[in-house]
């Protein structure tokens, strides 16, 4: 049975959007992975990227925009999206739940950094069809996960913060079944805040 905190993620981030933005920090520990992602995007100029769970847009979306990426960001929190719209008015920002995402558009790249891992196991399994539907042939997907199958409960602003992960083998299998080949994968990368990262290309 999924931990009850899984159903409170959207409300938690909406309620504490300003706290999250303040605590997130603007240092870009993810830069090396973002550069890997950008380097293999299929379009050399004005590549299109969908940032899934974009938060308040800093620092990841900001960095991608600075690299001349045509960025669209989605987040389930209206407050987060309002902040993005204020900071980066020339980009597209949408309030959306990734689990029901259907933009009728394919992108050169998708990124779900520290967002996808808030879904429960079954919702994560279903997401690979969503990823595939929104990634063009030759496009790139990057996401973070946990290091092994299980659930983990953190704390944020005094409330329980849910995370879950499938196993490494299952992620590889589901990527493959949905048209993705793994390009790079590191478990708890010490150079990137011990994030577990997946980089894959759509066939």
Description:
With 203 residues, the chain is an alpha/beta fold. It has a single domain, classed as Rossmann fold, CATH 3.40.50.150. It has helices at 9-15, 17-24, 31-39, 60-66, 78-87, 121-133, 168-177; strands spanning 48-52, 70-75, 92-95, 107-112, 135-145, 150-156, 159-165, 180-189, 195-202. A seven-stranded mixed sheet has the order 3-2-1-4-5-9-8, sandwiched between helices. Strands 6-7 form a two-stranded antiparallel ribbon. The longest helix has 13 residues, at 121-133. The protein is globular.
Task: Compute the number of strand runs.
Answer: 9
CATH architectural designation: 3-Layer(aba) Sandwich
Work out the helix count.
7
Corresponding CATH superfamily: Vaccinia Virus protein VP39
- In whole angstroms, the N-to-C terminal distance is 35 Å
Task: List low-confidence stretches.
Answer: none
| Gyration radius, rounded | 16 Å
General form = globular
Do you know the CATH topology? Rossmann fold
Let me know the largest β-sheet: 7 strands, mixed
Residue-averaged pLDDT: 93
